[in-house]
């Protein structure tokens, strides 16, 4: 699911399987996990015009990603590859407890 | 009746049932005194301090409340740690605004945005934001740290009450909550239901006077300074409620849903065992869909039989006599699992997924079937296969299952073959539904709609076409329900449609009498069915 883009940018796509979409609990988990990485991480609902800071819970909530939508993730920085992989895994595994 | 304002009654909406008779306690959001702003640096420091203090207070509350309340509060802590949000406020202070004004206006913007959302869930979250806004404003104005003093059994009356304030109140002596605004789907309503505190919302305007209050969470009424007669009637209602509650402990909030005289079974979907901790889960008629993919996620190896058995057993124990429908692994498609699913399929949604995959990987499937066969003797278990196209697949699955049961029994291990059913999500299965010897059917409306409409659910560009109420989708739902009715086999629907109030009239008209929704949607769906039944709209 990950493809190495040119230079230092890593990207990934993952479908949001969480039943209620990107609401409070998943948003908190996603931002918490994103903050564990140095990398600059952005997300958006596939095709949306703007990229959103994955470390901002207010913006993630405002993104209003619905159940079934695809989330695009991109990251740059020293641990960008691991960050993308971890976030894709979090969303794909439906925000398990204890994660993030 | 006494004169004046005495004996006046007000009606609102039920958020949590129960009765409270006690002193009326007014709680105001507290406009507080104006504060005198300092220099830019002082204001920035004041806000930083207030945020840290608020963060600590909320963390303490979360630690003492635990469970669901802690999760609700976690969102507030995350907001305080949101650098983008906080930076915006500091920038506003940098432009010369006092700390409290800058804070409040930024939070108000967010609140307005949530309130404008079409999504009821987001709307309800706005009271979490208001909670956070007020807490920090209070701290900035120097009136923090005064926990609400509520006399035992008091009826707390406020405009709205944020979750953190609810948690600060000592409810051990009973009491109730009467809100002039508020919503039955708010976090504070969830907390009230979890604690069994009666709560009525949307009471509108009530006079400032009043010393004693009667709150009836069921009738959604608030009576102020009641006459002796009113108290007598109230106590009679409370007593009959107590009796009926004792006789039907399971139905805590409302009678079972019915529509045009027919009983509508409302079940819940769960993604993992923890979902049963939702405060409303207990009111479900059973579990209509337990997904098992969580067992496949986050582990380097596929789960062993014992791990699976423990998960299934926990759910069956929770359900008691109620039915629990567990769906076998629905991997593949958009849910790849290393070591299980096939890589490199050009079109995974039309590929080896669901039961197709399980039949192709009998060694993995057998482990799940063993765990299910052992769990079947522990409760009212039903097992369903996902993504079934032909009757042969169901029979192949049944044969594997029967073999597993036989081997377990031969080894002296308690096991049995549970009722077997299928998901109806492939249009072919819906069209040829009578060819399946299934004990029950569960319509997976998400995939069914995707396949019937030829629209990838995850493709946003197709959103306008992706209409679950398309006549073709409804036709297939009707046919499936009709077959079930004729064959005497239960048919439920467990997709997103079931939890969408706008879809309910169509689903009921299609003949469905069993719906399975997320626990969080249960109350709303029950309420919508009630409303439809009494001739109202979906609201």
Descriptive notes:
The complex is a heterodimer of chains A (about 100) and B (about 550). Chain A is about 30% helix and about 25% strand. Chain A has helices at about 25-35, 55-65, 80-90, and strands at about 1-5, 10-15, 40-45, 50-55, 70-75. In chain A, helix 1 packs antiparallel against helix 3. The model of chain A is unreliable at about 1-5 (pLDDT under 50). Chain B is an alpha/beta fold. Chain B has helices at about 40-65, 65-80, 85-95, 100-115, 120-140, 165-170, 185-195, 230-245, 305-320, 355-360, 360-375, 390-410, 425-430, 445-455, 470-485, 505-510, 520-535; strands spanning about 10, 15, 20-25, 155-160, 175-180, 200, 210-215, 220-225, 260, 260-265, 265-270, 285-290, 325, 380-385, 420-425, 440-445, 490-495, 515-520. Chain B has an eight-stranded mixed sheet with strand order 1-8-7-3-4-5-6-2, covered by helices on one side. In chain B, strand 5, helix 7 and strand 6 form a beta-alpha-beta unit. In chain B, helix 1 (about 40-65) runs antiparallel to helix 2 (about 65-80), helix 4 (about 100-115) runs antiparallel to helix 5 (about 120-140) and helix 9 (about 305-320) runs parallel beside helix 11 (about 360-375). The relative contact order of chain B is 0.09. The interface of A and B includes residues 15, 31, 53 and 69 of A.
